[in-house]
Amino acid sequence: MEGETFQSLAFIACLLFHRLFSRNHDYWKRRNVPHVEPLPLFGSSLDMLYVPLCFIELQRYRRFGLLYGYFEGSRPILSVGDPQLLEGILDWRTKIFSNRRIGNTPLQRSQSSAMRDSQRKCQNGYRAAEGTSPQKHFNCNSSKTFSLRVSILSVTKQELHQAVELKTGDKIIDNMVSVKGGEDSKRIRNIMTPLFTSNKIRKITENVFQDSVNTLINNFRTAAANKSAADLKRIYGTFTMDVISVSAFSFRSERYNNPDNTLTRLADSILNQKLKVKLIFHHLLPIWLMRILRIDISSSADTSELRRIILEIIEERQRTGERRNDFLQSLLDIYEKSPSASSDKYLSMDELVSQCAVFFLAGYETTASALSFATYLLALNQEIQEKLRAEVDAEMERNDDHLTYDALKSMTYLDQVISETLRLYPPAFRLERQAEDDYRLGNTGINIPKGMVITIPVFAMHRDPKFWPNPERFDPERFTPEEEKKIPKYCYLPFGAGPRKCLGQLFAKTEVKFCLAHVVRYFKINTCPETNIPLEFDLSQHGLLQPKDIKVSLVPRHL
């Protein structure tokens, strides 16, 4: 009898478990939307443990088309790769999709839906109280239930606030312009945009890039003299770390000779975490539950240390009155002139520190990856390399072996090579947007509810033969002025688009152009036995395309 009771309880427990983690798995089927068949508990996320996400999205895109659904746990997600539909999502005028998600936030009903539901008794028996908003009343009941449950786990009041507000609890991350939402994001972007004008970049090109590229060339010459393959990720990482350290904080990292210096260690740790299981939790659990269970998707210890270092630099400058010509100083000047918190020109100290951090982190690995990809592709395509070298040689000989900002702007083939590199290997291989209100998706008949996350498979779109003939071929001619006009809008998204477009686009492209021009000028780039063909990639996190070792042979030119 006891055995039968146990079996019955086990059977019921299995049914409840299956029901709990399979709820909503018919969401896309009920709406006749092509979709990835979900698994109980994991939804469509299990293959992320062993296949890079960019290739998962490419496979799904080719199987299901430009528009399909999938699941993170029980949460429905919509992948949109149709340029016409993306215009309504990414356009500057569309405010509904102006934010990214922070974590696994719940779908929400619109105010009108809540009003309709509140006007009748539901299965759970809730009813709007007289004189109150049904939506407000419902949220209040939900928060009471939530508070009761989490109190058992001894969550602090601060953690509860962070959970309800859907924040990570990390001061660095929560205040980044790339994470901030709504008017706060718009305010900070408006403050930061003047810091990335062409005149600002011109000064950085003349004062910062040249010293850093000289060190880079010496490092490549050392590798060539030792007859060893050049480790592109490491050496370009040294260059970009040097550039970003000087541009942000006015000191050189010397990463090549001191790879364990604090800033390098922190950047590598924050950007290169091996998440795997944590990433699955990120897809399965709401962010408030991850906070309660102490599951950190980022390394809070590392971001806290980075915050401490930036604050120490600020305190030292304020103490001595020393001024520097760098990104931090520009933000400090804005901070010191900030009006009241209600002003659209206000910048808090927490926000200042976070923008320094995002400039430092975003300008490090993505730029190093772009340079590595470009150099690798030139090694595989000697004719393109020679054509680029001819343009670089002609321009540098006209300028006494020196490159100015204006000279870079005139090098059209160099620009084409970099644009084509970013098509094949966009460092940010996907975009995400979260609906701030209900939205009807074009003429598809799909209604996107408030809170739903839209993913945009940039890597897959960039390899779609409908938009790019022979898409696997490296062909800079796609980006001649004449051909570029033929590219449909929202088909090419290496820097995003709309109100969330990358602020540092001009800075990054100028840095890549300056560096690559010098490498092609002073070296012939070849493949070698250590060159991986095709490239291999790490399991991607943070939406960044992360190659494993990229090694080539660099032969010095005798000029």
Automatic annotation (TrEMBL):
Q: How does it sit in the membrane?
A: Peripheral membrane protein
| Classification via CDD domains | CYP3A-like (cd11055)
Query: Which residues are involved in binding heme?
Result: 502
Listed GO MF terms: heme binding; iron ion binding; oxidoreductase activity, acting on paired donors, with incorporation or reduction of molecular oxygen; steroid hydroxylase activity
Keyword list, A-Z: Endoplasmic reticulum, Heme, Iron, Metal-binding, Microsome, Monooxygenase, Oxidoreductase
Q: Which GO terms describe its cellular component?
A: endoplasmic reticulum membrane
Cofactor(s) recorded for this entry are:
heme
Source superkingdom: Eukaryota
Cellular compartments annotated: Endoplasmic reticulum membrane; Microsome membrane
Pfam families per UniProt: p450
Summary of the function given for this chain in its UniProt record:
Cytochromes P450 are a group of heme-thiolate monooxygenases. They oxidize a variety of structurally unrelated compounds, including steroids, fatty acids, and xenobiotics.
- Family classification: Belongs to the cytochrome P450 family.
Q: What is this protein called?
A: Cytochrome P450 3A13
Q: Which organism is it from?
A: Araneus ventricosus (Orbweaver spider)
